[in-house]
Amino acid sequence: MHAKVVIGPRVRKSPFFDDTIAAGADQFTIYNHMYMPSGFGDPLGDYWQLINSVAMWDVSCERQVQLSGPDAGQLADYLSTRDLLNCEIGIGKYAPMTNYLGYLINDPVAQRIEEDVYWLSIADNDQLFAAQAVAAERGLRVEVSEPDVSPLAIQGPKSFDVAATLLGDWVRDLRYFHFRASEIEGIPLIVARSGWSKQGGFELYLRDGKRGHDLWQLVKEAGAPYGIKAGNPNAIERIESGLVNFGSDNDDCTDPFEMGLDAFIDLDNDRDFIGKKPLLEIAKRGPKRGRVGLFLDGAPLAGNEQKYPIEQNGKVVGLLNAHTFSPRLERNIAIALLNREIPDDGLSAALPDGRRNVQVTTLPFI
Ligand code: THG
Fold this sequence. Notes:
By secondary structure, the protein is an alpha+beta fold.
């Protein structure tokens, strides 16, 4: 094929875009209509950097859907499988969203920023117009917008030292998923103890895109003594840690029970939300598939997040959604959606490097 992909005007650059290029980004993906760096030339080096040290990631593409007004909480709650009515200011919540069929359509982090302001930090699926339509159709007093907010993640064991240098020692005591408004040299931020890795870290939600370069440089300088490097959300670590990658771990008709998100589905009260009816049915009959881990036989695989059918006796019984060689486990691992109640016997998947036998395990791997 000799065709080129031409990027049009609707793909947006992050406020850190030029800095990521300067730092050596050589690969981008498109997420929420935005460029996101997805490689800096050394995938394995980036992995060990995250495990042993600290990395800074441009995750501006985690866009905020802002709900603002007296009914903001009511709208947030109606959009989510999770009870968001009693959301405390300062404590984020992982808050999956389903459509009217009960299928997962997003898995944002919800944060109540002020009394009447909620942010949904969304994964790659348009949510803004849906939320606007739902708000209008229900006559809710809420304005739905995408604010000028761009998260920068600092992840890895040394992220605590870097964040303390930037913000003060109070950040060391910030609890998991808690957040606080703050600033660094007049740059307005929300600082959250969160991020898409299990190595510990923070997300600095930049609240003024014009200060992107300034923030990037300050984090880089504060991180220099700790060996900070620019990187990006890491596919290997997230598979080991079993973090959900929306759009990878699911297909178009995956319910949140299949995804193992039961803890974030509140069905036992009178609150209503989009998808509640089908989810009540599914809760009764049980999900058809389950999100599981797999071990794959054989030599180290070059991983990817494409989908491959899992077969048993010539029948398709599941979908292998993401696989990688795990450097810490020293074996091939994968995340899959597998039909319930099939014996873990004679399962295999045809991957680009050849067919591999697979054994089922639970998530996370580490
Ligand atoms: N941070 C922010 N926005 C985001 C993401 C993020 N938007 C897109 C995407 N990631 C949303 N999806 C997730 C998926 C998993 C988690 C966060 C966002 C996550 N899960 C933990 C886990 O599964 O162990 C914790 C869940 C919990 O116990 O509450 O962190 O990363 N800003």
